[in-house]
Every structure is written in structure tokens, then in C-alpha cells.
Structure prediction request, 314 residues.
Amino acid sequence: MAERILVTGPDGLLGAAAVGALLARGDEVVLLRRPGPRRPSVLALDGLQDRCTVVAGELADVGDVLCDQHCGTVLHLAAQTQVGAAVEDPLATFETNLRGTWRVLEACRTASVGRVVIASSDKVYGTAARLPVAEDAPLLARELYEVSKAGADMIARSYAAAFELPVAVLRLPNVYGPGDPNAARLIPAVCAALLASRRPRIRSDGSPRRDFLHVDDAVAALLAVPADGEPYNASGGATHSLREIVDGLVTASGTAGLDAEYADIPTPPGEQAAGWLDASRLIAATGWAPRTPLADGLAATYAWYAAHPGFLAA
Prediction:
């Protein structure tokens, strides 16, 4: 049965893919967008925004939007997602990730929505003692970005416990895929360099290992995760070094002569040496599983940027 769903943060990689999936299954989608100029988005390129109700506003306006638009479900995907940006402007990061989350949750509680989905992060675990990390591991966040995500995660679960609000908390690893507008992220940055016939510059020695999940698989997890107030991990199913990712993109591009330039440090300040989530709980509860092989996902991502020259530079 079709639903009317509010999506915050619809212009990001995850948001745009979620909007596409919701429209494909026949839902009515309301987009909450911050007013003002914005970068190019898949929403515009693919004509998705023309099939949605678009509301200009801030996260503080979610209550009014829910009242006016009669949405029964909220996908809260708006966030400040960059470790470096958190160091440069911690106040803005906490305002968006912490205050923004409790404003959305309070609005959902007041409006008695049927389901609110919170996109959390593997960063809530900090530097875990054991990999892969399961949901019962302690939240050891210390860095600014990690703390902002851990706080939002805990606030969401507290609303579920205190008010029986149907909250779904999904802890995501590194999400990648076609149409990511954030040129500061590893995969878009490497694609941009290769397309410009430049050697990619990597901020580490390539040894940090990450859990990479294709955006289509991440969206499928968001739509499947139970709204029972418990945290659930999603995972690509393996951990890969950053050097593996760069090599995969170089292979996809056919530019074998453009070797990446790596820094002399193993891990940039504020970042973890390794991350990998255990998604067993989500798999057991829903049957969800990642379906996109990494090599295929990287090839499709590079091909998308090659077909949309200037997207990252705009």
C-alpha cells in the first residue's frame, strides 16, 4: 500500500537514492530542502524532484511540514557527514546532527507518525576492540563527528523507549554509488581525478580498511529495518583497504598509468584505522542482504561520473 513519506536531506547520495526507490514502489514523497542555492543533484538530473512535493525549510520546520503534508513516515537523512567538516565547524555539526535529530523526533512524536527512520553510522562505535562490530558493542565515540552521530543515535533510541515512538535506527558503513555530490569523499574524489587525467591524491598510505556498502543496498536496508527502537547494522559484508578501492576505480577507468599519490601517514587525524560492521541482526530480522559486488559497484560509479562530466565541479 502506498504511503506518504517525508524525506529530509534528499539531495545527498543516500537521500536521492531513497527518493528514487520510494517513487518506484508507488509512494508519495515529500522533500524537505533547505532554502537557497544547492549543488547539482540526481533528483534534478533524473527528474525525480518533479514527481515529489517539495517544501523549503529547516529541520526545525518538520512539525509544520508533517501537519501540512500528512506524512505517516519520515526518513531522516539530513546530516553533516564529513569528519573534516566537524573539526572545522563543530557547532554546525552538532546543530545539524544532534539538535536536528531531536527536533525531527519531537515533531514525529507530536504528530504521532507511524514510522521514523534514523540513518546512523558505524562511527558511533569509535575504535572498536573487535571486528566486525555487532550492535551490543559499546559506543566509544571520541572524535567530534563520531560523538555527533553517537548522540543522535542515543537520542533516537531514547524517544523509542520513553514514548513508544516507532523508531528505526540503522547504523551504516561507508555508503558509495553513482551520483554522490560530495567531492570530498574518497570515491568521488578519485573518480574526478581520473576523469581529469590527474593522479588521485590520498590522505593516508592506503592501509585504512573500511566497510563499503552500495547505495542501493543501503536504501533497501533503510526501507526494511524494523522500527522497534533497537539499533541495526548494515554492512557490505567485508572490509577493504582504501588502496583496494583506488585500484578498483583505476581498473574501471582503464587509466592504469595514473597511479595514486599516497600520504606517509597510516590514518589521517580524526579517522579510524579500520571499520567493519556485523549485519547478522538485520539479516535475521528482515532477510536483507547486500547484493552489489564491490567491483561492479565501483565500475558503475565510475561510469556514472564519466557520463556526467562536470557534476562534481559544479
